[in-house]
Amino acid sequence: MAPFDVVVRGPKAPAPLARLHGLPYFVIAQIIFATNAFVLINWYGALGAVAGLGLGVMGSVLDALVSNSFGYNIIVLRYNGFSDWSVLGAMTLALLGGQLMNVIVIEHLAGPMAVADLLATSSYTPWTLFGVLLNLGMSEVVFYTGHQFLHETCPELHLMHHCCLRPTGSTNLISDPRDVAIELGGPGALLIMNHFLLWEEDATILLLSYLFVTWYYTLTHHEWLATYHIKHHTRLNAVYTVYINQPGDARRDRIRSLLKRPPKHLLQ
């Protein structure tokens, strides 16, 4: 029995926890994100990070139980040559890598005081807001460059992620580790570099920028929100940006010709 057999259901079969589909699951996912960042890692360090990993696993399991889209994506992944074990391994590495980055930024570079300062209005100076906005703008450029590179130059690294034709809350974990390093590692590294080179180790700028970037990247895959990034998956368009809906040159995209859509009888 393959690991994901239990979550592959017919399109007309109700999901076990279908009542939580949509807004309820979305709210639960936001609670998990906030609890991990503001409570577990911030207050309990390494032990909190381990507990946060447990919450992340629970969130992914819940995602597979509230919607049939997760199982649909597994069918597409299998049809394109990705075994369940390879997908599970990629999800595990993405979860571990993301949590490691959370610990580095939230606990070590920013620290508990910086998290507490987010509640103080005095932390939000014009300089702070300028720093955050510049960080976001620069991270958008880095993300766009990496995302475009994956679509046009190394599509085989990005194929696993785009087999998720119906994105869900866990889709950001279903990526080749090299894809994650390029597409998400780039913006993360940029924020850390700016922390030392531009902002004189201003923890508030770093924390606000990092939390917004990581939070927003997870939001884009929630099917209930139906963001324009969802269309990037369903239609395989050439919009490589995150914050603005700016299409690139679709003629140079190589994912569309690489990805194989399963015949209808496999989706029944």
From TrEMBL:
Record protein name field: Fatty acid hydroxylase domain-containing protein
The organism's place on the tree of life at top rank: Eukaryota
Keywords: Membrane, Transmembrane, Transmembrane helix
Membrane-crossing residue ranges in chain numbering: 22-41, 47-66, 87-106, 126-144
